[in-house]
Amino acid sequence: MKRTNNEAAESSPSIALHTGIADPRTLIMRNLRQSGIYVALAVIVALFAVLTGGTLLSPGNITNIVLQYSYILVLAIGMVIVIIGGHIDLSVGSVVALTGAVSAVLVIRQGQPWWVGVLAALAVGLAVGAWHGFWVAYAGIPAFIVTLAGMLLFRGLTLQVLDNISLSPFPAEYQRIAAGFLNGLIGGDGYDAFTLLIGALAVAGYAVSGFRTRVARIRYQQPVESFPLFVARVLLVGAVIMYFAWQLAHARGLPIVLIILAFLVLVYGLLTRRTIFGRQVYAIGGNLSAAMLSGVKVRTVNFWIFVNMGFLSAVAGVIYSSRSNGAQPAAGNMFELDAIAAAFIGGAAVTGGVGTVVGAMVGGLIMAVMSNGMQLMGVDQSIQSAVKGLVLLVAVAFDVYNKRRAGTSR
């Protein structure tokens, strides 16, 4: 019996994929978790903008959000890679405190140049990461235990380094790392034109990258969204970026810490998506046995996962100590939970093998906007913690639900 052309196309995956255009509903369902966080971010921003009478989106407050939560976003980059690899790191808050303490002792107490403190903090972070990596990768101890021990160990070392006292202030050059701005470089009447230029370049880069990805997917006969939907997405993201840049341009200009964060997002986005190491991390987290049979050097990859986490914890430690203009024994308290929450809310899977750097950034921004919005509303700290906990629980429950549904549909 002869089949119609439509029936033949539906029964032949190769024909259906040849067009490179996927059914919109299929794309939405396939990327529900990743797409949902963007919708959630937009809804949360709109909600708190209304509840705070527009204060949330004021130029000064947007700048404050960038400055106040930049170190959590840096930690989230490293944490999502750890989680993709099937591990967890509970020590990052203590490492933030230790690296900031080492920098403060050298710069404030001993009078060393500010850059010596930065380099020393980064070296300590790398050493801590190597310590964790050795016990996880080569001794075979679960990362949960190793980093839990590290959380206690490095908090104790912080107390020893600081002699149980706070140190401050840092010199002005060190403070500029987290509190400095680039403005007035190319002028502007009542606004910083340089910030707008950087925003426009970011939009152009996003559009070019998205178009190249789309072309590559079509070339390999992978499903993509229709071209009008692609254009609409680029325009929407571009409008958000330019609005953000416009608000910064009317405040104090482009924060230096935002440049650092954008550089890290770009580098680690490429690392996870375009390098052999990134693919191996996904392979280990997705199916450890298959990765080993494929020739992946699991121990080496796991070792460098934790070295990288130590490095980014040190970067966050420098930013936090610069932001707070000093080092305190209790610095970094609970930072690990915020970083883990950002990764899970951003789409990382509990079992590993799934997650993106961009998703972790969006998850971190959701936490940042909620925290900032509730602070502007004068919500009690205990209620803020409860809300964050519920949001994390819902995100993980949604991940588990999706996996169970995918398992029963096979």
UniProtKB/TrEMBL annotation:
Pfam families: BPD_transp_2 (PF02653)
Sorted UniProt keywords: Cell inner membrane, Cell membrane, Membrane, Sugar transport, Transmembrane, Transmembrane helix, Transport
Localization terms from the record: Cell membrane
Main location: membrane
Entry GO terms, CC: plasma membrane
Membrane topology, as annotated: Multi-pass membrane protein
GO molecular function: transmembrane transporter activity
Taxonomic superkingdom: Bacteria
InterPro entries, per the entry: ABC_transp_permease (IPR001851)
Membrane spanning stretches: 35-56, 62-83, 90-108, 114-134, 141-162, 193-215, 227-246, 252-271, 301-320, 340-370
Known role: Part of the binding-protein-dependent transport system for D-xylose. Probably responsible for the translocation of the substrate across the membrane.
Alphabetized NCBIfam families for the sequence: GguB
Name of protein: Xylose transport system permease protein XylH
Native organism: Micromonospora yangpuensis
